[in-house]
Structure formats: structure tokens, C-alpha cells
Design brief:
Blueprint lengths: L16 E6 L17 E2 L2 E2 H10 L4 E8 L4 H11 L4 E5 L4 H10 L16 E4 L9 H14 L1 E7 L5 E3 L5 E4 L6 E10 H14 L11 H4 L4 E4 L10 H39 L1
Parallel strand pairs: 1-4, 1-6, 4-5, 7-11
Antiparallel strand pairs: 2-3, 6-10, 7-10, 8-9
Helix pairs in contact: 3-5
Keywords: Cytoplasm, Nucleotidyltransferase, Transferase
Family: Belongs to the IspD/TarI cytidylyltransferase family. IspD subfamily.
Main location: cytoplasm
Length: about 280
């Protein structure tokens, strides 16, 4: 059982939509030798669940997975083993923002692909280690991006954010009600985000951790879309355990549904024979 119900809708107003999944992180905060996106959850690599969540949505035309050079063969084997479709693997860069830019380039430059993919109207950028994304929030950010040029999911802050002074003492705290946590997915009109990354990578060597942070290059105001609690990111080892627990629960729920369905079918068949 994979995360996301992935219903087969017609898509957000029939827009051409692609997704870029940066999956090149080293997973330092998780600990261990294997990057978190390739850690097994119920016997399956975490990145495979995220790819499947996107793959089951018919209106997403292409799924670009950006990985570190040393994990390209690993990603190829995952695609082959689990039968993923519509997936293109791209070599990542030295930083996250350069990796995302490499993912965008497959629609505009031949450098990272043997052939250019069809340029989408809207591109979704989503973390490969956020496997529980649903079609509803993806559709919402895509529609908002079509209207505003850029959009991203947000969540309320759980803890109060404070700033410390140079001496290590409290300087000030932020009014929590005014602020939100920036989450994924985020969506952009392709031309806007491609130009923004072109400019950022040309004029700045410093990383841009959040795509919406490049809005000064986007020349647009990003629309913020309230997200759901299942948008969390696998960061620490405890998150892997939580993800495994959720997926186990999904499998149990599916099996229960199948059993109920089969029981109903059996009852209907028996009733039909009694009526004959």
C-alpha cells in the first residue's frame, strides 16, 4: 500500500504539470550510512513511496527525481524493481538549489537529458522524503500557482520562535499567530521558477533552501495554501519509525476493506443462489 489515494481526476483545469523531487540529500541529521530517501520502510525505499504518490495522479505528466551521482544506479534499480513510470533521473548539484535547477533543465536544456521533455505550464517541487502528500493539496497549489505565478503549502507554527542575543540570552520572540511554517509541495509557473533559478545560480553562490525564498527573482507574490498535518518531512530516525507505523496502518486498513468487500460479495452471491 502506498501513501496517497491518488484518484484519477482530469487535473487542475487541464494544465500541463510536472514534478521535481530533489532526492540528493546526505541525511546527516538521520545518522547512518544510507541517505534517508533510500532507507527501507516496510521493505521499500522511502523515495519509492513518494514517487508512487505522484505517479498515481494522472494529470502529472513527468516525475523528475534528482539524486547524487553516486546514487543514480540505485535509483535506476528502484524504478525497475517497483515498475515506476514517467520518471526521469537527473544528476544533482553541489547544493539543493542547484539540484532543483538541474531538474528544471530537462525541460529547457539538453545538458541533463538525452532529449527535452515537454515543458509544463506548472512545475511542482516536492521533497522526496515527504511520502504522505495527497492529490488535494497538490491540486490546490497548482491552481494557486496558475493564478499567482507561485504557491506553497504552509502549516501553523507549533512552537514559539525566539531570537537570541550575542550573549546567548533572549533577544525577542515572534508573535506566533502572524507566522507560518513553510512546507512542501510548492508550485510555480515553469517560466517564472526557471528564470528565478537561472538568476540565483548565476549571481549567488549561497544556497536557497526554500524555493519560495527566491521570490525576489520570481517577480511575483507567492500564494500561501493551508496544508494538512501529513505534509511532514522524514528528517530523524524517529520519523522513519513514524512513517513505518503509518504505512502499516494503511496496509491494515486496506486489508480490512478488502475483507469486508469480499464478505459482501460472498453474501450477495449466496443470496442470488437462494433466489434461484
Amino acid at each position: 500500500m502506498e501513501p496517497s489515494s491518488g484518484s484519477r481526476g482530469a487535473g487542475p483545469a487541464a494544465a500541463a504539470v510536472a514534478v521535481v523531487l530533489p532526492a540528493g540529500g546526505s541525511g546527516e541529521r538521520l545518522g547512518g550510512a544510507t541517505p534517508k530517501q533510500f532507507c527501507a520502510v516496510q521493505g521499500r525505499p522511502l523515495v519509492s513511496y513518494t514517487v508512487r504518490a505522484m505517479e498515481r495522479i494522472s494529470w502529472i505528466s513527468d516525475i523528475i527525481v534528482v539524486v547524487s551521482p553516486e546514487y543514480i544506479e540505485t535509483m535506476k534499480s528502484i524504478i525497475e524493481k517497483y515498475g515506476h513510470k514517467r520518471v526521469t533521473i537527473v544528476k544533482g548539484g553541489l547544493t539543493r538549489h542547484r539540484s532543483i535547477f538541474n531538474g528544471l533543465k530537462v525541460f529547457a536544456e539538453n545538458e541533463f537529458s538525452n532529449h527535452l521533455l515537454q515543458k509544463p505550464e506548472v512545475v511542482i517541487i516536492h521533497d522526496a522524503v515527504r511520502p504522505f502528500v495527497e492529490e488535494d493539496i497538490l491540486s490546490k497549489v497548482v491552481m494557486a500557482a496558475k493564478d499567482h505565478g507561485a504557491a506553497g503549502a504552509i502549516r501553523p507554527l507549533v512552537s514559539t520562535v525566539i531570537a537570541s542575543a550575542a550573549d546567548g540570552c533572549l533577544d525577542h520572540s515572534l508573535e506566533r499567530a502572524r507566522y507560518r511554517a513553510s512546507e512542501m509541495p510548492q508550485a510555480f509557473l515553469f517560466d517564472i521558477i526557471y528564470e528565478a533559478y537561472q538568476q540565483h545560480c548565476t549571481f549567488h553562490s549561497s544556497p536557497c533552501g526554500n524555493c519560495l525564498s527566491s521570490r525576489k527573482y520570481c517577480k511575483t507574490n507567492a500564494k500561501l495554501v493551508e496544508g494538512t498535518a501529513d505534509l511532514w518531512k522524514v528528517t530523524y530516525k524517529r520519523d522513519l519509525y513514524a512513517a513505518e507505523s503509518i504505512i502499516k496502518g494503511m496496509c491494515s486498513s486496506l486489508w480490512l476493506s478488502v475483507c469486508i468487500f469480499l464478505s459482501l460479495i460472498k453474501s450477495l452471491v449466496c443470496y442470488s443462489f437462494e433466489c434461484l
